[in-house]
Amino acid sequence: MTNPYRSREDHILLAVRLTPNGGRDAFDGVDVNGDGHTHLKARVTAVPEKGKANKALISLLSKALKVPKTAITVVSGDTARQKILRIDGDPEDLKFKIDTLASA
């Protein structure tokens, strides 16, 4: 299985499949969709209206990766379940933390 992220010089791009209204705020490992793309599965209790679920996702990732919320932006998929997030920081450090999340 490949990783749900792509490294860049000063950030990574992370593919996420978000389940809003998911009963709890948590990560559910890594999965592969029908197109063969790998993504980190996340669920949040927030509802998918007015960006609430995206804000909850950013908050959850911020805590888990120990980066400021301002370091995480939604690059694509703002209103979709499949999202690409840009996370600013040291790519090696971020990859290690995401791998730890994905295997939990």
TrEMBL record:
Family: Belongs to the UPF0235 family.
Xref: Gene3D superfamilies: YggU-like
Highest rank taxon of the organism: Bacteria
Organism: Rhizobium rhizophilum
The protein, known as: UPF0235 protein E9677_19865
NCBIfam families: DUF167 family protein, PRK01310.1
